[in-house]
Amino acid sequence: MGRGRREEEKEGLARLTNIGPAAGCIICLAVTLVAVIISIVAIVDGYHEIEEGYVGVYYKFGALKNVTTEPGVHISQPFVTSYKKVLIRPEESRMSSVEAITKDGIAITFQGISVLSRTTKSKVISLIKKFGNDFKKVLIFDRIKEDLRIFCASKTIDEVYNEQFLEIVEAVKTDVEAQIKTLGDGGVTILNLVISKPDIPQDIAQNYKQVKVQWTEQLVAKQQKVTEEIKKETELLKAVADARRQKEVLEIKIQEQILETEGKQKISEINNKIVRDKQNNLADIAKYAKDKESAGNTALYSPEYVKLQVAQSLANNTKFFFSGQDSVLGGLLTKILASKR
Questions:
Q1: 3-state SS assignment for residue 318
Q2: Distance between CA atoms of 234 and 211, rounded to whole angstroms?
Q3: pTM
Q4: Those residues with Cβ within 8 angstroms of residue 200's Cβ, 6 or more apart along the chain or in another chain
Q5: Most CB atoms within 10 A, among 85, 137, 172, 313?
Q6: Which residues are CB-contacts of 201 (< 8 A; sequence separation ≥ 6)?
């Protein structure tokens, strides 16, 4: 029985070694096809693209390699190498809500915290080695939560919600940046941080609302008072301006009247001067005529001429009776005749 089994095995081996040509071609084609498929799968597995704004990091057998690739098409060692894309351009992230407790024991919640950050390309490998692929969560988001809670723990609800709310962003951002510099060697940078006002308990919010209403009313009253004062001041300024304008107008009118009076006075003086000059001229003419007449009379009525005219007049008139030279008439005639001779 054992001998029969050995003979069967020998016959089967003989059949295998006596494969025909057709069977050999089929086996070659199958091997070639398998090789092609494996090559295609290897290419597909190793082929990848890195988009603009990213760098590629690689893991070989799970170990991070100390190289990064730039944007573009790349081929990595298939089956043993994997890759991840790391964003290095500015990225805006919204954090989940952060709960905190104030110094006076009030629970508040910060919603919608927004962080704009950027990763330094040369620090990507060291960041991943230290903090893993989610290094921003460790260096930025967790640090912001921690600093917010520390800030609120040392402040009252009024300080956090009202008095010092604008200081929260600067305080948190400054502390987180210091921790990033220490822990992450400055590998990530916070470009902008937005923290909205926290949600506070409803009853406290209602109280703040009432205070706000009262403050608004006071502000309105104060503004009305300022407006009234401005209105009165405006009216006063307007009245002063009107009075000044009336004064200036009156001064102008007075100046006009003075100028008009001075003009009339000057015209009167000019007219008087003209009349005076005219009268003086007429007087000078009359005086000149009298002087000429007087000079003519002086030359005409000389003593000899006068005596002659008297004598002729006496001779041509009534007859005179002389009673000698001793009479008045005789004496006068004697003098005239004597002077004639």
A1: coil
A2: 34
A3: 0.54
A4: 106, 108, 157, 161, 208
A5: 172
A6: 106, 107
